[in-house]
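EI: anyone free to look at a 203-residue chain?
SC: sure, send it
EI:
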Amino acid sequence: MRVLNKIFLIFFCLLVLSACASLNTQKDLKSVESFPVCYSYGCKNVQTVTLHKEQWLVVESLFLPKATTPKQERKQISLAIAQMETFIGDITQTKNDLPGTFAALFHDLADQMDCVDEATNTTVYLKLFRQREFINFHKEGHRINRGLFFNGWPHTSAVMTDAQTGATFAVDSWFHKNGIEPEIIPTKLWYSGWHPAPKDDNL
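SC: here you go
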């Protein structure tokens, strides 16, 4: 009986190890056709979205010619996220999303996004860019948070890391209405409570 138990235990361990090995060797850079987008404040609503091939070609064109520096790539990422918001806004009916949080407090929040929604979606977009090999110098990270007791109201943002230097950048689309380029700034500056200077998003 003990022999059988040992054999079973060895067989079980081999199965676990083989599963782990398959996970480790699985390619992360897999093209994803459908992806989740959340809105209505705090990701109350989550919708699966699919972009057409023509739409992806438009997004890809914003990364051409290929960036030769991380700084160039960050500008391309900013333009591409704005374009993603424009495409997706028509699908999820969030094209009229207002900047910030308080501007929408007296509106129906069903088509609005707070910073949690924005940060979550931006992280998804960054991952999609990397999976489709649009970007080479940056990788998305976990959302970052600030505020509550220091540096203003609680706030969250997407973040990405410069693969060359290890520097991290907040990618914050919450400051502007839908379809406007997000602010991409060093996380140290973002944590200080930084806000962009007021500007006309209609320009």
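EI: Residues 1-30 have pLDDT under 50 and may be disordered.
SC: 👍
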